[in-house]
Amino acid sequence: MYVCNCNGIREREVRAAIDAGAQRPADVFRACDAKPRCARCVCEMREMISEQGEALRYAAE
Ligand code: FES
């Protein structure tokens, strides 16, 4: 499933970028060698970053 239609960035690529340390959508774009265009995907990227961070915090408890 695509998260960013403008750049063809898939969900698994966003997750890989987050696993590699992306903390902001800009980091995800950089990791995918892409640039934001319409920015409609930014909210979803933020949610994925937040969810993954919460999962890590939960796992660490
Ligand atoms: S959907 Fe990602 S920049 Fe447009």
What's this model, at a glance?
The protein is mainly α. The chain has 3 helices and 2 strands, in the order ββααα.
Write up what this structure looks like:
The model has no long low-confidence stretch (mean pLDDT 94). This protein has three helices and two strands, in the order ββααα. 57% of the residues lie in helices and 8% in strands. By secondary structure, the chain is mainly α. It has helices spanning 11-19, 25-31, 42-60, and strands at 2-4, 9-10. Helix 1 (11-19) crosses helix 3. It has one domain (2-60): Arc Repressor Mutant, subunit A (Orthogonal Bundle), CATH 1.10.10. It has a two-stranded antiparallel sheet with strand order 1-2. The structure holds FE2/S2 (inorganic) cluster. FE2/S2 (inorganic) cluster binds at residues 4-7, 36-41.
Work out the count of structural domains.
Answer: 1
Ligands bound to this protein structure: FE2/S2 (inorganic) cluster
Are there runs of 5+ residues with pLDDT below 50, and where?
A: none
At CATH level 2, the architecture is Orthogonal Bundle
User: H/E element string?
Assistant: EEHHH
Could you tell me how far the N terminus lies from the C terminus, measured between alpha carbons in angstroms?
A: 31 Å
Q: Any idea of the CATH topology?
A: Arc Repressor Mutant, subunit A
Overall mean pLDDT: 94
* Rg for CA atoms: 11 Å
What class, by secondary structure content?
mainly alpha
How many strands in all?
Answer: 2
